[in-house]
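[step 3/7] fold_predict: job queued, chain A
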Amino acid sequence: MALKSTIYKADCQIADMDRGYYHPHNLTIALHPSETEERMMARLLAFVINAHEQLQFTKGLSTDDEPELWQKSLTDDIELWIEMGMPDEKRIRKASSRADKVILYTYGGRNTVWWNQIKPKLERFKNLTVINLPKEATDQLAPMVKRTMQLQISIQDGQVWISDDQNTATIMPEVWLS
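[step 4/7] structure written:
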């Protein structure tokens, strides 16, 4: 019998002063059986940094043809494709050809060697941004993981503050390629 995803709910109150975006989002996030909570929270962080009414989680790990998150236009064009982790060049090339903008979020602290090897290959994609979420940053999110989360998010000058009723995390994403 196959393992099923664990469902998490996140009520996010987002105040993004950098983009002038102030909006609540009630999110349902499926934690795939092979996914860690750190990766799930990195996906949630990617969502809040790029929050938009049309941004949505996809099937992600269980589907090769879809990113972790995407934003589609009313005509079904992919405006934003968000990847997580350390994908190969082929996957980034595919994303860059299908979407107007691609953002890759790396996380976990083991990605420097990968980045040094793949950077020259990725620099040719003009619609690609690579952002690193430092291990210390994603570790701050661990105490906030609950099946039902109430989160307040503030973004200003590229810095992200996330808090719940007991914890606060301050995250400064590192732009590796823009």
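[step 5/7] annotate
Residues 37-49 form the longest helix (13 residues).
The helical segments are 37-49, 89-98, 112-122, 135-141.
exit 0
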